[in-house]
């Protein structure tokens, strides 16, 4: 009887250890899955001071595309609209969730870490808010607050109809556009 109990305890401990070691990877993959989609909202702070110059308020659209159902990252596109000047900036990036932080590596060389973020539901909608930090210095750049507008398949369908694609590997040059409509 003692041998059977001993082997059952060992088996149980092995199972618990396997689950505990896999939990971080599973959390990162789940967070990547939740990010997958098309988000809109605002960014407030110094986020663009190095890139575009100065503190300002920005409306933003961000697409996160997961590289597969079980991937912890992928690629994406961010379009930012300066509320004051009407300029729009369009840049693509690679991203990955690592240990609960999201690393963004933009194709124009800029890198940020998203930290202290929340992915949560309000009614039937999903929200995403947190902070952008400079990857190299750790300095807090801005706070953001986004709403999920649709899943990736929703955007892909619309983009295909317009002949658009976000996986080009090229940063876009700033363009001057009319400011987006107030939300």
How would you sum up this structure, described in words?
The protein is α+β, with helices and mostly antiparallel strands and 183 residues long. It contains two helices and nine strands. The protein has helices at residues 2-35, 152-162; strands at residues 37-45, 56-66, 73-82, 87-98, 101-106, 111-122, 125-134, 140-150, 175-176. It is elongated and about 80 Å long.
Compose a concise summary of this entry:
The chain has 2 helices and 9 strands. By secondary structure, the chain is α+β, with helices and mostly antiparallel strands.
Number of strands: 9
Outline the biggest β-sheet: 8 strands, antiparallel, barrel
Radius of gyration (CA) equals: 20 Å
Global shape: elongated
In the predicted model, the low-confidence regions spanning at least 5 consecutive residues are 16-24, 153-161, 164-183
The ordered H/E elements are HEEEEEEEEHE
Task: Please state how the strands of the largest beta sheet are arranged side by side.
Answer: 1-2-3-4-5-6-7-8
Q: What structural category characterises the helix and strand content?
A: alpha+beta
